[in-house]
Design a protein that fits this description.
It holds the Pfam family Cass2. By secondary structure, the chain is mostly beta strands. The protein contains two helices and nine strands; from the N terminus they run ββαββββαβββ.
Length: about 150
């Protein structure tokens, strides 16, 4: 039996996220795993983000990062991205990270995913977020997936 997705809508302020980035393909991607390994070796237990943006032909940029202040000096090799103030559809992924692509597929394709939100649509021009709590342990606590929203065209 497939678990139904649940979604909450939340409005989030603008934030600046900085970290390491790579280009990735849709679906399971070894480059993202390697990126997190590199990122986590330099960062303590803090809330962190997987930021997905710049989608083109099944390839996108993935940034493993954390909140920073504007003007804060960044470590060598780090980049930053501004995530605008926006409403988001927030979905929960429970279980091992090796299965997070299944949750993403359900968000995109299932009837209780992004298509179920009345009056709103995915804003493909804005970054999507995977939010990892500061106490994250693989499979030990949920990761939330934040999909940026815009009003549906009528």
């Amino acid at each position: 039996m497939t678990k139904r997705l649940t979604c909450t809508i939340t409005h989030a302020p603008q934030r600046l996220i900085a970290g390491l980035q790579t280009r990735a393909t849709i679906g399971p991607c070894a480059a993202i795993h390697e990126l997190w390994h590199q990122f986590c070796s330099n960062v303590g237990a803090k809330q962190s983000y997987g930021v997905c943006y710049d989608f083109m032909d099944g390839v996108y940029t993935y940034l493993a990062g954390l909140d920073v202040k504007v003007g804060e000096p960044l470590p060598d090799g780090w980049v930053s991205i501004a995530v605008p103030e926006q409403s988001f559809a927030v979905f929960e992924h429970n279980g091992d990270l090796s299965t997070i692509s299944n949750t993403w597929s359900a968000i995109v394709d299932s009837d209780d995913g992004i298509k179920s939100i009345e009056g709103e649509a995915w804003d493909h021009s804005a970054p999507t977020l995977e939010v990892f709590p500061s106490n994250f342990k693989n499979g030990g606590c949920p990761v939330t997936i934040w999909i940026p929203l815009v009003p549906k065209a009528t």
